[in-house]
Write a structure and sequence with these properties.
The protein is an alpha/beta fold. The protein has ten helices and 13 strands. Helix content is 30%, strand content 25%. The strands form four sheets. Strands 1-7-6-4-5 form a five-stranded mixed beta sheet, with helices on both faces. The protein is globular, with a radius of gyration of 19 Å.
């Protein structure tokens, strides 16, 4: 009997219409378009301006579009996993809300929190349910409304983040396609360097925490950069070594879109030219759990069935990892 693999068979995106440019950010804090482009590589980012809309609205819109694109009934979905660090509320899970808004009633769902590594952690988790033969259609969602936890008075973090909701469909295949393997790592030391200071059980919300602006992203940029460059490049190179893949064997690297210098360092470690690296950080910024599937959606027409693709990410926690997959369809 042929081995069952989990293959990505569709991808869809929801992007807010509003574009927050570097010029506009320069009117909020002491920065310039040139500084942001040189240090980070971002030109603009999408922002969900409607205060009544949340992460689930972006995720649900992406799910509905995917179902329509694939001609699938919501009732055919077995499981929905949402990777997010900006849930609509502490509970219930945002995945549950997305499922309800997308009229998915015959599935179960849950959230996964691994920050910028969230999508690849969720994809690896979903893969187990497909490979076991238990489920045939699983949706993995990467969605974050980062504008809700970004301090637009902090010049070190406010240029970084954008909002988006992206989904992929996983289905079983017996062809030599789909998710081949993954390597994931965590180091709890990272909690000191990239986190939200208040709002959890360790430091519940209070008038004092709100006044101190402790419900926004806090990042020690130089420390995070150092760990990210090493971690993301290491696991991407490790999975290549595990399968004896040369740079010529790789069709695409799909890196987390946090910083152009981290992306370039990872590509160099893998021996890849820039034309084999998916990059859209300039127009979307860091959408956290959504960056990798957003690249897959943005480059979908360039992907070919059988392409060797490596996904690589690094996030708060610290969390990092890579996935080796063979693309399953021609768009």
């Amino acid at each position: 009997m042929a081995k069952i693999r989990a293959a990505i068979t569709g991808v869809n995106a929801f992007l807010p219409e509003y574009r927050l440019t570097n010029h506009e950010i320069s009117t909020m804090v002491d920065t310039t378009d040139e500084w942001i482009m040189q240090r980070i590589g971002i030109k603009e980012r999408r922002i969900l301006k409607d205060k009544e809309k949340a992460t689930s609205d972006m995720g649900a819109a992406a799910v509905k579009g995917l179902l329509q694109k694939k001609g699938i009934s919501p009732n055919e979905i077995d499981l929905l996993i949402c990777a997010t660090i900006t849930p609509d509320m502490p509970f219930p899970a945002t995945a549950n809300i997305i499922a309800h808004k997308a009229e998915i009633h015959n599935a179960w769902s849950f959230d996964l929190n691994a920050a910028c590594s969230g999508f690849i952690f969720a994809l690896a988790t979903a893969t187990q349910f497909i490979e076991s033969g238990r489920y045939r259609k699983v949706i993995v969602c990467g969605a974050d409304k980062m504008s809700a936890i970004t301090n637009y008075n902090d010049r070190t973090t406010c240029p970084l983040f954008g909002d988006a909701g992206i989904v992929v469909l996983l289905e079983p295949t017996e062809e030599d396609l789909g998710v081949v393997d993954y390597i994931h790592r965590v180091d709890g030391l990272g909690r000191h360097h990239l986190h939200m200071k208040a709002g959890g059980s360790m430091k519940p919300a209070s008038q004092e925490t709100v006044a101190a602006k402790e419900h926004f992203v806090y990042q020690e940029g130089q420390v995070v950069f150092k760990y990210a460059v090493t971690g993301m490049a290491d696991v991407a190179a490790e999975i290549m070594e595990r399968y004896r893949l040369s740079s010529n064997d790789i069709a695409w690297l799909v890196p987390h879109q946090a910083n152009m210098r981290i992306i370039e360092a990872t590509a160099r470690r893998m021996g890849l030219d820039k034309d084999k690296v998916m990059i859209n950080i300039e127009k979307f910024g860091n959408t956290t759990a959504a960056t990798i599937p957003l690249c897959l959606w943005d480059y979908e027409k360039k992907l070919k069935k059988g392409d060797n693709v490596i996904l690589a990410a690094f996030g708060a926690g610290f969390t990092w990892g890579s996935i080796f997959l063979k693309w399953a369809y021609d768009s």
